[in-house]
């Protein structure tokens, strides 16, 4: 017999779809089917059952081979590395639950670490902009029920957040949006004609990296003031038209992604996007939201926000929290050779950091906590596989609109495997012993 | 041997194939097939004088990598090339954060040349070899 677990939360992207149904075997050990998830979410659940999954920690040997070790030895290695470092970098924290993030922060405080999460290569610049000028925000429920003008700026949810459009932003019928897709106007701004642009009413094919100019031009167009004939590759008629579409809406939502945060201009692009939103509030109701990628990157920002006052790049090496993006951010620390060990949990910098940073990780004492084999585990000295958070252990995660959702456990982890939280608790206990606290 | 080279603006980002193969295991061939590629506009293919699905070398002032060139799936966008986010793209993107913490993943000028006799390494091998200075 099998049993179906309803209302399962998907631990892939920041949309945190909470309507998945997962079929498991009667003994709760095998995961058989996943319904309602996107292709990526389904793969994440099913891959946890892979036959070649690693279940025990591995230590890299001189000749490049791996030696299997027990969890006790892995805990000792990790605790010694962190306790003996002057300034460890503790990076990741986005693919785990808030409970584990809390324990990780305590380790960071005791060892004088720099705590950084994946926002550093994702929406870190958005956080800087929000701290600079604030943000008119809303929840995804409000988007579903109220938004009749939807802008996707430098993001491609058709690929990166596959169910976002059907659950919240374009297709669903809401309380005040009973016509669904027909009642909404969708504008996509992207240098490529993406699959998201294909379902939009208007696609402004902007020249890459010219976001600031186009945002500025929109602010000019809202006021009906003159524009040059072409701005950022877009004819002025199209800009005036887009401005009119936005002003005439009842509720405008601007979603923005990596096209804005990772292009030159960075946080200043977002400053301007927020200014566009603020201007729109002169005419109608408007809000803006970052399209956050990892399912709990928002949560790690929230946890550190209430623990340290800063959402990422928290430097605890002086015994109190310092925050200075550009100085206390992972890639800058690695490029400047300012950390003496690296601890990674819930992320893969080996695949997603610029190579110069990856090389630096490979030269330092390093530990990677990850259920998968990844380019990070390939260059770290110790690899500790753990249970999948969101699949084999529950816990709190924050959706991209800052709504906390309790994720569910659907199957048991392979026998003898630890969870992130358990592993961190043990490491914390051992560090306290070493430091005599 | 074809020695034509074109210069394009490189951007990176997610694709659904990148997401699915990433969750399926980054050591598997599917991940290399999904991310060890560069999407080039048809007009740029014409300038390069290369066939679709040939291996090419992509070089910037920050590094160099061999990937498979395919025709852009979400285009047209002349002058813009696309490598899905992953270790291949990260060999060549601009790591400078300009005091924001954020490397410049989008908007790196790169040169593309044909590299028919070279192979696309898988993600683990690429990172290991690059760290050892073997490529």
TrEMBL record, chain A:
Can you tell which superkingdom this protein's organism belongs to?
Archaea
Keywords per UniProt: Oxidoreductase
For this protein, the record's Gene3D superfamilies field holds:
3.40.50.740, Dimethylsulfoxide Reductase, domain 2 (3.40.228.10)
Any GO BP = methanogenesis
**Do you know which InterPro entries this protein is assigned to?**
Formylmethanofuran_DH_bsu, Mopterin_OxRdtase, Prok_molybdopt-oxidoreductase
One Pfam assignment: Molybdopterin
| Matching SUPFAM superfamilies | Formate dehydrogenase/DMSO reductase, domains 1-3 (SSF53706)
- Kindly list the GO molecular function terms attached to this UniProt entry: formylmethanofuran dehydrogenase activity; NADH dehydrogenase activity
* GO CC field: membrane
Which residue range or ranges hold the Molybdopterin oxidoreductase domain?
53-268
Protein's recorded name: Formylmethanofuran dehydrogenase
